[in-house]
């Protein structure tokens, strides 16, 4: 068995910007003193004249990006999810969202897998915040291949986009040659009718592992990857609800306002279906190695397997 | 400034003030005080300075203006209507359901370069436009108007630091120093003074001027144009409510609309001013 390649999606983000910089001459990148961590430094090295460090001033950076977008250029504004969606929320809402400007927000270090930095930097509420902004597109890619495709899709989409990337290296499971990213379309990775596991971001590979485990026990779990959380793919969710009658959402985000809530919104209005949510419960994180934290907070294939078995009474 | 041109600008400013009163009266809400204090500046910019075309509001190399103190939208709207970006009649449905003119500036209104109103944010957007212009060697200038109370917002100083660091000499920030904010005199609420020293410390070239004298406004904006390598702040001493006697220097007129009687009195005063100015030409 070949060794699983692992890569952090923030790395994919930086590389994608640098690769796409040539094709899209109108692309500019902003950062707030975190270029080494968000990996926009890779773009900076290649295109220093199209990279602007705004210093530790995220609110201003979002406004500057908005102003630039208003002149027809395509700016990416990058910082940690905590500051992009949290600190700068109101600027993103009023100066990017309300005028519907073509700003791409590259938010890295999302979720609990930030690890040792602890609760102040573990943003588990960014999806919830961004979902409330009318016209905001939210993409949470699962691996390197998807993350790179998502960056180009964001460029091609006219309007504000929030891209969520992680710090932790995660398995690359998509095939670069055959993978196709369609904005707003979920991907059915494994078919099955006993339960549908709907996952996003780095939880998708955990869901895949869990489904393989469950199969050994005769449980056929459908696995759906929702990379675009807004607008969400209603069809794939409703089909799953219809076929399986039981949904399990898995996300590295608060159970309040994220993928789980979005799925509940869809099914409750159309085909009321039981939805079990795995995510960060209503609590803050704390320091520790990312891998251990993910296990502790139940964001693991083991917990997915356990939860599915309990739900199905097996 | 040529005396006839100056008189024409004064006439124009008076008409813009009448549009402000018309808009706020019909809306039964809004911010007349700070709108009246910037009426002359907007008149000067849109009728004597800026390269804009009402027939082509999205012209690529137009000069841009971001009204960072967005609550004074009635002044911007009245100026744009008088300039011909949209019909003057629109002012009467300001803030109404289904109206073109929203309570605060909205980018989808012809001539409005940026949505604004949440204080402290417009100056950042203006920085982004100015940076974009520098990158592309575009000939346009970017103007942004801030309230003196607004500069209590921390984001203003993030933007101020950014603008000087990036040497945005195509950016002019006008600080409308009428001295009053909702809760009272700015020095009593949370003093932003000394404003000049602060902007200078942030690396800006600062010009002080009188907001209600077109000769002085012209001198200030001409000087601003000559500055290279750094952004320019024009601190204009203004009178809140300028042009309507009972509104002048009254904090209560920051955010309230005149009743029918007050509306009539204000319009009568402005009409009188207009007639007098027209008689002088």
Largest sheet of chain B: 5 strands, parallel
* CATH topology (fold) name of the largest domain in chain A: Rossmann fold
Tally of helical segments of chain B: 10
Main-sheet strand order of chain B equals 1-2-3-7-6
Largest sheet of chain A: 7 strands, mixed
Number of helices of chain A: 13
The helicity of chain A comes to: 40-55%
Overall number of strands of chain B: 7
The value of Rg of chain A in angstroms is 19 Å
Overall number of structural domains of chain B:
1
The most extensive contact between chains is: A-B, 29 and 36 residues
CATH homologous superfamily of chain B? Answer: Thiamin diphosphate (ThDP)-binding fold, Pyr/PP domains
Secondary-structure element series of chain A: EHEHHEHEHHEHEHEEEEHEEHEHEHH
Fourth CATH level, the homologous superfamily of the largest domain in chain A:
Thiamin diphosphate (ThDP)-binding fold, Pyr/PP domains
State the low-pLDDT regions of chain B, or none: none
The SSE order of chain B reads HHHEHHEHEEEHHEHEH
Q: Radius of gyration of chain B over alpha carbons?
A: 18 Å
Structure class of chain B: alpha/beta
Contiguous runs where pLDDT drops below 50 for at least 5 residues of chain A: none
What CATH calls the topology of chain B is Rossmann fold
Q: Please, what is the oligomeric state?
A: heterodimer
């Amino acid at each position: 068995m070949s060794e699983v390649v692992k890569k952090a999606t923030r790395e994919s983000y930086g590389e994608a910007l640098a690769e796409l910089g040539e094709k899209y001459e109108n692309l500019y990148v902003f950062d707030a003193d975190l270029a080494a961590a968000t990996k926009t430094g890779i773009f900076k090295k290649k295109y220093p004249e199209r990279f602007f460090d705004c210093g530790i001033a995220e609110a201003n950076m979002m406004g500057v990006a908005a102003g630039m977008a208003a002149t027809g250029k395509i700016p990416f504004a990058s910082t940690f999810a905590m500051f992009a969606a949290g600190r700068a929320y109101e600027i993103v809402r009023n100066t990017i969202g309300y005028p519907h400007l073509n700003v791409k927000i590259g938010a890295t270090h999302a979720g609990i897998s930030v690890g040792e930095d602890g609760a102040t930097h573990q943003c588990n509420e960014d999806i919830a915040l961004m979902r409330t902004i009318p016209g905001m597109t939210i993409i949470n890619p699962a691996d390197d291949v998807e993350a790179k495709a998502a960056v180009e899709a964001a460029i091609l989409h006219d309007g504000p986009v929030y891209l969520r990337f992680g710090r932790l290296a995660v398995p690359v499971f998509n095939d670069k040659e055959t993978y196709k990213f369609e904005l707003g379309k979920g991907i059915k990775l494994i078919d099955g009718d006993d339960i549908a596991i709907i996952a996003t971001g780095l939880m998708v590979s955990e869901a895949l592992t869990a489904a393989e485990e469950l199969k050994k026990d005769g449980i056929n779990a459908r696995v759906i990857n929702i990379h675009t959380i807004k607008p969400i793919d209603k069809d794939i969710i409703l089909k799953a609800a219809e076929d399986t009658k039981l949904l399990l959402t898995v996300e590295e985000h608060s159970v309040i306002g994220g993928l789980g809530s979005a799925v509940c919104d869809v099914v409750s209005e159309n085909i009321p279906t039981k939805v079990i949510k795995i995510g960060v419960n209503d609590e803050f994180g704390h320091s520790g190695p990312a891998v251990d934290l993910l296990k502790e907070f139940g964001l693991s294939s083991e917990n997915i397997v356990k939860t599915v078995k309990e739900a199905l009474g097996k | 400034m040529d005396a006839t041109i100056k008189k024409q600008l004064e006439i124009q400013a008076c008409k813009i003030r009448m549009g402000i009163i018309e808009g706020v009266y019909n809306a039964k809400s809004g911010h007349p005080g700070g709108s009246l204090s910037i009426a002359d500046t907007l008149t000067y910019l849109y009728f004597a300075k800026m390269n804009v075309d009402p027939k082509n509001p999205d012209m690529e190399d137009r000069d841009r203006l971001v009204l960072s103190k967005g609550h004074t939208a009635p002044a911007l709207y009245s100026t744009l209507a008088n300039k011909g970006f949209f019909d003057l009649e629109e002012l009467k449905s300001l803030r109404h359901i289904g109206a073109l003119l929203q309570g605060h500036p909205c980018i989808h209104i012809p001539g409005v370069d940026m949505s604004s109103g949440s204080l402290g944010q417009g100056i950042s957007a203006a920085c982004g436009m100015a940076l974009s212009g520098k990158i592309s060697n575009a000939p346009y200038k970017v103007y942004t108007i801030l309230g003196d109370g607004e500069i209590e917002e921390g984001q203003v100083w993030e933007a101020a630091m950014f603008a000087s660091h990036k040497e945005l000499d195509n950016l002019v920030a006008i600080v409308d120093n009428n001295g009053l904010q909702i809760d009272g005199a700015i020095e009593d609420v949370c003093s932003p003074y000394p404003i000049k020293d602060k902007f200078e410390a942030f690396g800006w070239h600062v010009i002080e001027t009188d907001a209600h004298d077109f000769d002085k406004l012209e001198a200030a904006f001409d000087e601003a144009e000559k500055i290279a390598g750094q952004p320019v702040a024009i601190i204009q001493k203004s009178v809140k409510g300028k042009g309507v006697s009972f509104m002048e220097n009254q904090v209560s007129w920051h955010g309230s609309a005149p009743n029918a009687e007050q509306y009539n009195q204000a319009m009568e005063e402005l009409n009188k001013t207009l007639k007098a100015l027209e008689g002088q030409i």
